Structure formats: C-alpha cells, structure tokens
Amino acid sequence: MPLLEIPQVRQITATIRLDELTASQIDQYAAFLHASADEVVDKALAYVFAKDRDFQEFLKSPKGRAGSAELAYPPRSAERRGIETCFAYCAGRQGDGNGQRPEPPRRCRMTAAISAREKAALERLIQIAQSDTGQSRMTAEFLLSWWNAANCGGFDLTTMWGVDAGIAGDMVTVFGLVACCHRYPDDLGYGEEFRRIVRAWRPALKHG
Question: What's residue 9's pLDDT?
Fold first, then answer.
C-alpha cells in the first residue's frame, strides 16, 4: 500500500478573454501566492463553484449534467481565427537591428508568474548556454530565439535531436512557459543572463 496517493487530473488548454484589470490582478495574486496564473484561476474558480449552492443545485439538473464543451473545444472558426491572429502577430514582429526586442502589445502580456519547475528548467538551460560546447551552442540558439529571433536567429526544432534528453526536456518545459506567459526573458528577471549569452554567441550585435 503506497504512502502517497497522487490523483491523475486531466488538464486542458483553453483560451478565454479577460478585462485588462482582471488579468493584471491575476498576475498580482499569483505573485502574492508564489504560484502560476493558471493555478490562481483554477483554484479560484474551483472555490467559487464549491461555495455557490445554487450552482451545485444546477449541476444536478438535466441541463447541468449535460454540460458544454465550448471552452475546452472551441468552434473551428474561432480556433482558426486564433491561429491566424497568432501567426500574424509573430510574423509582424521585427527587431531593431541591434539586439533589442520589440515590446508585445499589452493584450498579449498575460502573466509573469513562473512555476518552480519552469524556473529550474530555464536556469539549467541558461547555465549550459554560458559554457562553450556544442550542446551549449544549441541551447543558446534555443534561448536566443526567445530573446530576439529577428536579430539572433530562429531555432530549428530538429536541433533537439542533438542534445541530451535532459536538455531536450528542459527545452520543452521552457517552450511551454514561453507559449503561456507571453513575456520576454527580461520581464521574468533574466535580462542580464540573456545579454551575457548574446555577447558570447552573437558578438556582432551592437547591444545585448
């Protein structure tokens, strides 16, 4: 009989629209709790659902039991619009030619919260990128594509085939972080570390 029981929780990725003030306060509450924005939203909604007696009664009704998959599986047209918007935004980003990155629109900046697992993975990659090996070069290319792909170069995903499994796993973790947090490294407090990587691997750039 194991001492610990770890329940398997099915998670989904969903896109919702928030008022700017609400999004900002989620950031602040996540920082207050030292948690991620995902955890704040998830736990806050779970608390509301559990405390709302009328909602609990509604769940027992036929309509409540039927539920809805709209959030988890958005209609194809909405999903298509989201994909097109994402590609348009990414394709439209341009560097300034000296290693500085453009600021993303405020509507795209959701949270600076970073989990302990993501933080550890990112810091391991930063440490590796500051060395002088083949694996360091590939790691640096991955990180610099986040810092400024226009000036530092993009990242070929097949490069991950040439790094150790642990490094590849950390890359996957950081890729998920970048996709969800909508922030640049310096927004998360890693500006100086990334500038050192720029100076080491992209010395031709005027500024880090």
Answer: 67
